[in-house]
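Let's do one together. I've listed all components of the complex below, 888 residues spread over two lines.
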Amino acid sequence: MKVLIIDDEEDTRSIASMSLSILGGLEVLEADSGADGISKAAAEQPDVILLDMMMPVMDGSETLEALQANAGTKNIPVIFLTAKAMTSEIERLKRMGAIGVLTKPFDPTILANQVRAILEG
Amino acid sequence: MRLNLKLSHKGLILVAVPLIFEVIFLATLTYLLRQAEIEVQRQVRSKAIISQANTLSKLFYDAGVAMGGYSITKSPLFSDRYDKIVRQIPQDLDELKNLVGDNSRQQQILQNLQVITVTGLKILGEAKSAIDDNRVDVAQFRARHMYKEIRSLADRLQDELRGLTEDERKIESEGPEAQNRNRAMVKIYLVIGVLLNFLIAVALALYFSRGISRRLNVLTDNSIRLARAEPLNPALSGTDEIAHLDGVFHSMAEALNEASRKERAVIENSADVICSIDVDGKFVAVSPACNTTWGYRPDELMGRRFIELVIPEDHQETIRAVRAVRAEKGNTEFENRTRRKDGSIVTVLWSTYWSEAERSMFCVAHDISMRKAVEEATKASEKRIRTIIENMLVGLIIITKEGFIESINPASERMFGFDAEEIVGRHLLCLFNDSKLFSERSQSDTHNFMENLFSRALNRIGELDALKKSGEDFPIEISLSEFETADGYRYLANILDVSERREVERLKKEFVSTVSHELRTPLTSIRGSLTLLSVGALGMLPEQAKKVVTIAERNTIRLITLINDILDIEKLESGKLDMVFDTIQMNNVLDRSAEAVRAFAEQNGIKLEMVHTNASVYADGDRLVQVIVNLVSNAVKFSPKGETVTVAVSEIPGFVEVKVVDRGRGIPPKYKNLLFQRFQQVEASDARKKGGTGLGLAICKGIIEAHGGTIGVESEEGKGSCFWFKIPPLATAKTQQAGQPPAAAQPVPLPVAAANPPLKPEEKMFG
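Okay, and this is what the predicted structure of the assembly comes out as:
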């Protein structure tokens, strides 16, 4: 399974990437901005996208909108990875089309399982 | 016996008594005169009887003589004479009979006389017949015989007549005597009458004097006594008009007396000094109250000039006022300051009346020092309150019930940018953002505005958007309270400009958001890195390195927990804790909680026992799990190894109850209530030894209360504790939550929720 992580924080990206690949055994792609994420998503066609909410230039919501607007990426499921303070946003994010929300800081030991669980519904 | 007679009766007596006496007197006299008259008549009759008897006797003789002559002469002269006499005799007899009347003895005599005369006349008649028949012998015989007979008859007649006349003579002789006696009687009666008359007159005069004059004098005397204020004579007895008048007079005098006693009592007991001051300004009379007001006895003031009491500074003013009183000739008031005997100053209000007739000023001097003091105090207090109001930062506006502005304080002026003069009288609406849409000149608009205002801000704090004169709007907190004035109800609006506070709130929110993001981002990396290291994802570490990495990881988790808890508390307090309500099974909540803490319990050698029930609640499942995990974690931490912690869900009337029971050291009673407050732990060392932020239970309390439930603890020191909470069951909760905003109430089964289990047991420390 191929996972695309879109996050402007390189450290977070690295930890998430390592958790998913080393502990979860998943194939991981990284993008450091919304725009980068959209192009990588279109190019690589990942099975799921982990999208950070708070990013400069193009934040999570805008990125999601762009992904959904693009025929090549609109069918790729998106899970938001957001700070816990933003839980009030969960409903809004889900209405926007995200299939789930994971909060930061995440537990690297179970991150892969959480992603799988959401994908399996 | 006393006769209770009225004046009219007495008058009647005065007239009737002499009248009756006169009548009696007159009757007596009349009677006496009548008697005298009768006596006279009787004498006249006696004389007539005597005369008649004599005549009769003479006639009889004459008849005899005539018959004798006739027998001798046979002359018709004698015969005629005889006949005439014979005819005359019965007439005279009848006359005599009339005179005698009903005297029985005389009647008897008369009868005898009649018999005698008849017999005599018969004999004479026979003699005449014999003469006429020329039977001289017979006649002679008869004459002789007759003579004898006649003679005896004549004698008898004489006797009888004598009997008659004797009687009458006796009467006749008695007559003057009786008359004299009568006359004497009349004289005596007259004298007696006059005397009696005199006596009666005197008696009546006395009676009148006693009964009327003297009593009238008493009345006169009483009126004089009343005028001199001397005691009155005793009340007159009786029931007549005078006694009545006297009674009325006494009552009147008593009433006057009573009135004057009362007046005196009023004057003497009046708290105000009542006095009269003569034309020279001297006290003529002073009531005892002067002792209280000035410390002088009345006798000390009498004769003194009243201006002496007045302090020199007020002399001019007082003199002017007194002149005005005299000029006004009516009631006038003035105030001045007077000095008491002890030197202290008393402010006095003089209510005065100038009497031109008495050439005096009548005054009531009222001590108004207290009133003055109260007025001063009131003024001072008013000034103080005014200063407070004018200097306070809160805007105060007083409005009428209809919303028209009556007054505003400087803070309001500054807040709205209006001057008081330009805003007073206008409608409150003009100070609100609503005035952009509604007109303060429309009655329905202002009415609706006031209704809205009252419903939002009367006796509570409402938040509204206000408008400055410049047109800039700003948020305010406003609270109206009603108060009563002489002109009716008014409302005091307390207005606070909350622009700054709103800004602070916004900044705080931003700060919280920033902190949560800015802290979490690095912490996410740190924690992730440490976890990857500690689980050996990057290769096995030496034992000591692994130990250090574990310590770093644990403390990082603790730091994350602390941040999470602080954010939760912050939201709970601002009422912004996100809650996702849904119909949930308590069994599910219990399972998830057990799942979350099982590992932690096992680590601590504690067994978990779950008592399920099929109850459903309308709640935020994640939050309930958070609460139960927190309570169980605490129970595990404070239980000795090998013990059991029981989590039991049960339905009780009106609630679903969850109990977490441990067999730990228990909680001293004094900490029971403190436990649910922030940063409270039974022992200060607990935080270090057992970990935890001291916020967990406070968050639990907030969450449970947000569900409309309650949380508490029962504990016995040394035996263990039972933490419990109860929340309304499904039906009750749903109706209660009906008013919740849709976002919070929307029941959405979240994969996230399932995929986002509560923090690991070790993350939840004793709160």
